[in-house]
Specification:
Serine Threonine Protein Phosphatase 5, Tetratricopeptide repeat; 277 residues; single chain; disordered N terminus; globular
Amino acid sequence: MSVFMKSNRLQWIRRFILSIYLIITAIFAGSAVAQGSSSTLLTHENKQKIELAVWRYAIDTPLLMETIHWFREVTRNSQEAAAIVQLSRLEFMRAQLEMDKKRRIQLFERCIAIADQALALDANDATGLFWKAAAMGKMAEDSGILRALGMLRPMEEMLLKVVNLDEGYENAGGHRALGRMYHKLPGSPISFGSNQKALKHLKRAHELFPKDIITRAFYAEVLYDEGKKEEARKHAHFVLATPIDDEDALEFSAYVDIALDVVRKTGGAEISLGSYK
């Protein structure tokens, strides 16, 4: 193989791994949205505890761990799929905080195993499918290109099922993740990326949740790539003008960066980030 070919191959691998990372951020972002399940274990009080731990996971690790230990006991021997999925969701947040790569992969494998328990009870549980896809995506990010290639199609299938079952779940998280996936993956014959499919899903996510800044950032980027600069800049401006809570600051910084990049590339006016905490 020539030096030129080797260089091109290495560049493609690096771009592919970066694409995996960008797709995964689309899947799990916005995860503090309250759930609507009416299962016995998911009482109003229990759901409030879970939502608080998920919302503050990045700045209050002790609260997250305490909630995981508590809900693990609550769901022990449970046959309620919706409740078991919430344990997978909590474990997902914990896995994100793990700095050791090997241990992080193990924790995401645990998330998948717990989600599978829920799906064994209800194969059409949109929440179980969503969090399994999210955990698989994070594993793909850490596990290398070959393992990632084997996970992408199953992730796509699960996310398509999510949008068919409950397209509004996690602020249209299924549409948002599919849009990001189709936008960032290479097209045929290497993979199944498609800007037209990306636009379809991100447009629908925006219709369902017009104030969601993650969707707006992703939508702006694909619109720019399709030559729709004015529309792209409009969505980017919205992202930059939206206040962000301290609990979301670290996670949402990536979407602010996307919006800033779109504004710069489209020659838009400078935006004050004074509202960004």
